[in-house]
Structures are given as structure tokens and as C-alpha cells.
Design goal:
About 15% of the residues lie in helices and about 55% in strands. It is globular and about 55 Å long. Strand 13 and strand 14 form a beta hairpin. It has a 16-stranded antiparallel sheet that branches. It has three helices and 16 strands. With about 260 residues, the protein is an alpha+beta fold. The chain has one domain. The two termini are about 30 Å apart.
Length: about 260
């Protein structure tokens, strides 16, 4: 039996062999929930990264200066040209999107986003993102996230505190709350993501953890990334990214399969 699930930003298929109808449905549902939790995080991460892209080291010594810089960069951060309008309101940058894509490749963006900037006592740039019904790639996000930016060696980093809800790419309603760290390497255009958050879907709440995940622009996920999704009923979904166009998943109930990522290297 074969059940369809999705991976951001492309479809994938989860293969379920040798199981009965109820077991297959349960396994497919658990794998789908786990995947939805991670793909939602990546949709959010696209906005979190873009909100601070190019703002480090521009002399923004206060929130209003960062907001002004973000408004000036709107035409570079969101394409095609003219798809986004931006205006400054004190320390807040307000964006209105009409079929945009951002620098991480999140596309079909519609709706409004407000980003309020400030500096932490340590002098780090912080952005608070808020949106209701922000659409991206068919998903709808009620976005709430606080993002604190930094730099480490050749990486641009961001610590994200998320409290986002909405409807995912497959129509699953979910709420996410927790923390993760994203890292961006400009020289390779690769994004890394590590963190843990609570994911609540109609069937219950689970703890989702992602580690060592790395994906470069236009490429499939690299080998080494791992994700676990621990449900309150005790079931644990594990996904191992092995490089290339497939990943391997297993569920603690005994089911396992391969996931064909609809990407190409």
C-alpha cells in the first residue's frame, strides 16, 4: 500500500510494505504529521532568514534603522521585481506580497507581514514577525516568531522562538511552539536547521526534533540530517536523510520505508 506525503517544497511518496490497512493508515498518518511539522518550520525559516538578510553590519544601531534597511532591500529579498510593497512604520517594516518568492526559494507568497526590529542588550539584531493568513506554496500561516540574528565564522545564524499555527501544504492544521537555530552559508548558499519544538495536530501533540539538516539551494538534502517526531501515544517517527533523492523512515511500531524526495542533484 502506498500513501502520499509531502516534503518542502516538493512532493514525496512514503512506501509502506507488508502491513494491513489499519496499520498502513496509522503509519502513513504518523509519517505525514512528522513531515508536516518540518516542512512548516522551513516555510517559517524562509521568512525568518529573509527578514534579516543583508541587515547585519549595515550600521543599524537601532530598530528604526534596521526597518529602513529592510524596506530598501525588499526588491532584492522578494522577487520578481514589484511583487512586494514595503513601508516603514518606526521600527516596523510592513510588507504586502503578491505572488512573490524569497531568497530561500519559498514561492507563491501572498498576504501581509509585519516585522518589528530592535537591538538586544548585547547588541544583536532581533526581529519579531507577525502575520495572519500569510500564504506560501499553498500553505496558510498565522506567523508569530522572534528571531535573533548573529554570525559565526562564515555563517549567518538566527535563533528562532516560534509560536506559529496554520494549515500546512497537505491541509493539516497544526500549531508549533519551541526553538530552533538556522544557519546560512553565503559562499555555498546552504541552509542548516537544528532544533526542537512541540507540534499540535488534530490527533494530538508531539515533540519534533531536527538535527544536522542541511540543504543547498537547488539541491536535495545532504546526507546526515535526522528528524524524530515523538507522539504522546509513545510512537516515534524517525527520518534519516541519506543524500540524494531518497530518505529512510521508520516508526517505533515496526513499520519502515523509503521516501522518494522529488528533487534532483
Amino acid at each position: 500500500m502506498r500513501a502520499q506525503v509531502f516534503w518542502y517544497p516538493m512532493a514525496l511518496m512514503a512506501s509502506l510494505a507488508g502491513c494491513g490497512p489499519n496499520e498502513a493508515d496509522d503509519a502513513a498518518s504518523s509519517a505525514s504529521e512528522a513531515t508536516e511539522a518540518v516542512e512548516s518550520a522551513f516555510l517559517e525559516a524562509g521568512f525568518a532568514f529573509t527578514a534579516g538578510d543583508g541587515l547585519l553590519g549595515v550600521g543599524a544601531d537601532r530598530g528604526s534603522a534596521a526597518a529602513a534597511a529592510a524596506v530598501r532591500r525588499a526588491g532584492q529579498s522578494f522577487l520578481p521585481a514589484g511583487c512586494a510593497t514595503a513601508a516603514q512604520d518606526g521600527s516596523t517594516a510592513r510588507f504586502l506580497f503578491r505572488n512573490c518568492r524569497n531568497t530561500l526559494g519559498v514561492s507563491a507568497i501572498y498576504g501581509a507581514l509585519a516585522v518589528r526590529y530592535e537591538l538586544t542588550p548585547e547588541g544583536r539584531l532581533r526581529a519579531t514577525l507577525n502575520a495572519l493568513g500569510l500564504r506560501a506554496m499553498g500553505a496558510s500561516l498565522d506567523l508569530g516568531a522572534t528571531v535573533t540574528y548573529g554570525a559565526r565564522e562564515s555563517l549567518i545564524t538566527a535563533d528562532v522562538d516560534t509560536r506559529t499555527s496554520g494549515v500546512g501544504l497537505r491541509g493539516l492544521r497544526l500549531t508549533r511552539s519551541g526553538q530552533y537555530t538556522l544557519s546560512w552559508e553565503p559562499s555555498t548558499q546552504c541552509l542548516g536547521l537544528d532544533g526542537t519544538w512541540a507540534t499540535t495536530v488534530p490527533s494530538g501533540t508531539a515533540e519534533t526534533s531536527l538535527s544536522d539538516f542541511r540543504r543547498c539551494m537547488g539541491r536535495c538534502p545532504q546526507a546526515g540530517g535526522r528528524m524524530t517526531h515523538r507522539k504522546l501515544n509513545g510512537a516515534v517517527v524517525s527520518v534519516q536523510f541519506v543524500g540524494g533523492e531518497t530518505a529512510v523512515w521508520s516508526i517505533s511500531t515496526g513499520r519502515a520505508g523509503t521516501v522518494a524526495l522529488m528533487c534532483s542533484n
